[in-house]
Design a protein that fits this description.
Largest sheet: 2 strands, antiparallel
Order of helices and strands: HHHHHEEHH
Structural class: mainly alpha
Distance between the termini: 31 Å
Radius of gyration: 17 Å
Shape: globular
Number of strands: 2
């Protein structure tokens, strides 16, 4: 909670270009997975389509995303990040990394690695409980058993 608060407190006050939380999450998912329909985004986040529709309308108004024909030939229009959306998402990611780097500046490399390992495990466990997996490009291995769209193995 404190880390999140530390990042959020200065977001909009220090830089009006910073993305709202919902915009950051939606753009991150589209960036990772490629163009997505409102229905796909609603399923991915476990939200009502009306909620996602409002959030994506804001992205469209701000020029951060655009509607495109389904690249796979489907009937539904999909949302794709614009160049401006990509620029702002990259800037926000860098600001988040910079903030975290300041928090752990005096940690040893071993402590940083330990934090990374535990956070990966925490995220994978949360995904398994929700049954919603964030798409990833890395291979699934013994340390990271929950691949996208596959149930995580249960401890016996």
């Amino acid at each position: 909670m404190l880390l999140s608060r530390h990042q959020v407190l200065g977001r909009r006050e220090r830089d009006p270009e910073r993305l709202e939380r919902s915009a950051y999450l939606l753009l991150s998912r589209i960036d990772t997975q490629g163009p997505m329909s409102i229905g796909q985004l609603a399923d991915a986040f476990g939200l009502d389509t009306s909620t996602v529709n409002r959030q994506t309308a804001a992205l469209l108004r701000c020029g951060l995303a655009e509607r495109v024909a389904d690249p796979d030939g489907g009937m539904a229009r999909k949302l794709r990040i614009t160049a401006e959306g990509g620029r702002r998402l990259t800037a926000d990611r860098e600001a988040n990394r910079s903030c975290l780097a300041r928090v752990i500046a005096d940690w040893s490399p071993g402590e940083v690695q330990e934090l990374e390992d535990v956070l990966v495990r925490l995220n994978r466990s949360a995904e398994a409980l929700e049954g919603r997996y964030w798409p990833r490009t890395e291979e699934t291995d013994a340390d990271h058993p929950a691949a996208p769209h596959e149930p995580a193995p249960r401890a016996t």
